[in-house]
Amino acid sequence: MDSSQHLQPLTISSYLSLVFFLLAIVFVIFPLSIGIPYSDRLPVIPIIHPKHGKKIKIRINLATAPLIAIVILLATKSIGFQEVVKGFLGTEGIQPYSIMILFYALAYICISLDVTGFVECCAYAFSNKSGKDGRKLFTYFYILFNLMSAFTSNDVVVLTGTIFLVYYTKISKIEPPTAFLISEFVAANIASMTLYIGNPTNVIVAQAYGITFLTYSAWMILPTITAMILAYFALYIIFRRSNLIPDEVNSPKRNPSDALKDKIGAIFGVIVLGSCLITLMGTSFTSLSVWIVTLPFAVIMLIRDIWYDMTKDKKSNNNVKRVDEEKADIETIESERVKKNMGLEKKKDETKENNKSNEHLSSDTQFKRNDYENENEQIVDIKYDSLNNDLDENNELEKEITMENNSFHSTFFSQKKKSSDLITTRSVPLSILNSKKKKPHSSKEESFDSNRENDLSSIYKEVISEPHDNDSDNSIFSTFKNALPTVYSVVIRMPGNLLPFALGMFILVEALSSRGWISRFAIAISALTPTYPVAVISIAIISIILCNFLNNLPMTVLLSRILQDENFAKAPHVIQTPAIKQGCIYALIIGSNIGACLTIVGALAGFMWDKILKDKGEKIGYWQFVKWNLGVLPVIAVGACGVLIIELWVFYDKLNN
């Protein structure tokens, strides 16, 4: 059958669709902010940023560029609403809405797990094994981030692991932290090939061809492991030669369990995530969509977070009430002690006038006074211990004031106090009464470790602090944050820009298909894939290149539709050699994952990674990033593609012969 019979003629609408598709990509990579004069008469539209001075700014970026392109195409009648509907609901087996549900459901589970301190706990468990050896530390962190990405996704690792690395390298004084940050990013994007859910691009391809969870992993596990190992040696050699992996590091030592902010929540989160993965494997033989499996587990996690916030607040309020009662008791005892001491001083003056006649009485009174003081001090000690037990139970409530605990005991009970001393003691700030007693240090080394721990905590608090948002002052956001702080912490860290970007790109690709471009691209791809070894190499190279021009998500949508087009799928050599089609499918998965390792713009994870570093005062420039990864990407691409070609040979040639 002649391929030309399947070509749709190109029109002005076709060219406009292609132009605005490319323009949307340009503004995603190079966002633009346009300032226009502000007037109270102008209507407020969603893409307009809050006013700055006498101007308002329109942002054309990741979230808005595809939507603006769609609006223009609709206004010029280059596309119709049917393309918008198809782009949202999907065609050819690809369901954009289900991909987004799957992504956000899994992201919520993983970020909620991170909020409990689980990721930090794991990081300390790995780092403690390295001792002071910088090379071991590099290796252990590389293994950790590979494991995290293999069982979650590359975006989750970037969102959680990058923040910890910035904090850890600062406290360890690893300057510059380039080797650790880039190896984390590379590991996240390689290991994401392991499972179906590791990257939205995996889901797109798997949906397009009906690949099950287990079938996907069966084909991809060996190329992924090969790429992981090759990437480690390539990164290690490159960074050791550049002296970016130190021989010795002054790593902070911390009990991993101390990093858990919510131990029960961490255990619950691990069980939920594990159950979700097991269920996905168990249902992979059915026609059940993966989002239907994943969403209920995310809802369970959300309900648990809401319950935790509500019960924590109730417990905190009860503890605050008890703390207030204990403070009132201590102040009452102190008041009585002051009055008694003043009365005793007055009685002492009276006894001096009677001298020897009342000597026995004076001695007895003095004894009772001392006994009364000692008794009151014991009572205060008991009350203070009870107060600290409450504070230990409510550590989350009181963690803001733990830095004020500079020995209340030594101030309050150091020696016998005169009346004036006791009056001064009552003026001790209540925040000190609220803080926990600080254990005395037995040596200079312990004192240094304590100061280091305080520095470490302050740096981590600075690093993980939420970015300032104009909306944070809004009463709705404030109420949400105060009522459900855990849920708020999770939601605020989720990549919200991904939703309009992804859905917008699905619609734009649908526009290209309906206007005749996809069929023409399919004929070109068919000519580049005469055999399965050539097909694997060709598609891998094309997808890697397009990743860094289009971004991996729109690239995967585009190439998936091209490979589904009958001008490729029904080409004689593809029908006669099934290994060609299979090779193209998995080569596309390889390219969409590792292609993100070349430039920052190769994947959405790159944008998030770069933004986190800039927000936290670290910067790895675009060309610096490319320079380091140019030595890594070819190695892992050759290794992964080589293993895939061997798998195709074994499955289609050796076993069939």
Descriptive tags:
single chain, 657 residues, mainly alpha, 3 domains, three-stranded antiparallel sheet, 30 helices, 3 strands, 71% helix, 3% strand, transport, Cit_transptr-like_dom, arsenite transmembrane transporter activity
Mean pLDDT: 77
β-strand percent reads under 5%
General form = globular
Helical stretch tally: 30
Secondary structural class: mainly alpha
List the helices and strands and how they pair.
Blueprint: H1 12-29, E1 32-37, E2 48-52, E3 55-60, H2 65-75, H3 81-89, H4 96-115, H5 118-128, H6 134-151, H7 154-171, H8 178-191, H9 200-209, H10 213-241, H11 263-282, H12 290-354, H13 359-393, H14 395-398, H15 408-413, H16 419-425, H17 430-434, H18 444-463, H19 475-483, H20 485-493, H21 498-514, H22 517-527, H23 532-550, H24 552-564, H25 566-569, H26 572-576, H27 578-594, H28 604-615, H29 622-630, H30 633-654
Antiparallel strand pairs: 1-3, 2-3
Helix pairs in contact: 1-2, 1-21, 2-21, 3-21, 4-7, 4-11, 4-12, 4-20, 5-6, 6-7, 6-8, 7-8, 7-18, 7-28, 8-10, 9-24, 9-27, 10-30, 11-12, 12-13, 19-20, 21-24, 22-24, 23-24, 23-27, 23-30, 24-27, 27-30
